[in-house]
C-alpha cells in the first residue's frame, strides 16, 4: 500500500537531527515548510517556532508538536578515544547495544559505534547486569589523540537510522515526534481562510520536561490548545490486550489522560464528533504513564481548554519506532477538519 502523503518530507523530518536544546537543523526544515503556508512566522528565545494563520474572529487556537528527539551529550573522551555520554531524554540503555550513532562536532559529523562484546567472552555477572547510559562507550574507530582533537565535551550525539516503509508501517528513529510535526505541516497546507486564528507551534525540549510548551503557554493567549504526540502501541506479543493502550491501524487516538494531563471532556467530545461526521477512524487513548506538550498548555496557559491527538506507535524511544500509514493519514484528516470547522462561538467551559 502506497501512502497518500509526502513520504520524502516525513523521511527528511525523521532523519534530521535535533536533540533537546539544540533543535537547529530540524527547526530549519520546519521553518522552510511552514513559512509558505502561514501569514507570519516567528521563533522565540528558546527556539520554539510559531506559524500563524490569521482568522476572521478574536478566537485563537494553538496546535503543537515537539521538534526534539532523545539523544546524548558528550561528557568525556577517554585517552583511548572512546566517547562517554550523558542522556538527553529517556533512554532504556538495553536498546543501545550494537547501534550506530552520529557525533555532531564543530568540524562535521562523525559516525560512531556503540559496541557489544561477544557474549561468549562475558562472565555470568556481566551477562546478567542491567546496562546504564553511563556504561555506554562510543567507538569512533580513531586513536585516542585524534578522537580527543575531533570531539569535545558538549558535542551532541544522535542514533543513526534511515526511515523506511515496512509493510503498512513507517519505521525509523525520531517518529517521536517528527511524525506529528509532519501532521501539523500537512494540516497547515489544507487550511484556507479559517474563522479562528491558528498558531502552528513546533516546540523544543519536550523530552526533558515539556519546557518549550510551558514557555508558549505563557506567551500565547489562546482559547484552545491541541497537542500532537505519538503514544504507546503495545499490540505486540508479550502484552495483554488491556495493556496495548492503542492498536496500529485503528485510527488516530484521542487522548483522555496520561500521567501529566487529563484533557478537557468537551474538547474530547468535539474531536469525536468531527471524526464521526467525517468518517475518520479514531480510538480512545488512556495512557498510564508519560506526558506530552498538552500538559504545558494546560498548566501554564491560564486554564486554557486542552485536547490531544496521538499517533499510535510501536517500539517508542528506539530506532525502530513504527506507525501505521492509515493512522498518520487519519490524524492529519481529523486535525485539519477540526481546525477548518472551529468557530468563535464554540465553548469548552465546564
Polypeptide structure, described:
- The protein is of the alpha+beta class.
- The chain has 2 domains: 7-69 and 173-341, Zn peptidases (Aminopeptidase, 3-Layer(aba) Sandwich), CATH 3.40.630; 71-159, Beta Barrel (Elongation Factor Tu (Ef-tu), domain 3), CATH 2.40.30.
- 27% of the residues lie in helices and 28% in strands.
- It has helices spanning 7-15, 24-34, 124-128, 144-150, 175-190, 211-219, 265-278, 293-300, 325-341, and strands spanning 40-43, 49-53, 60-66, 71-77, 82-88, 99-105, 108-114, 138-139, 156-159, 164-166, 169-172, 197-203, 224-232, 252-257, 282-286, 306-314, 321-324.
- Strands 1, 2, 3, 10, 11, 12, 13, 14, 15, 16 and 17 form an 11-stranded mixed sheet that branches. Strands 4-5-8-7-6-9 form a 6-stranded antiparallel beta barrel.
- α6 (211-219) runs parallel beside α8 (293-300).
- The N and C termini lie far apart (43 Å).
- It comes from Halovenus carboxidivorans.
- Pfam families: Peptidase_M42 (PF05343).
- This is M20/M25/M40 family metallo-hydrolase.
- InterPro entries: Peptidase_M42, Peptidase_M42_aminopept, Peptidase_M42_dom2.
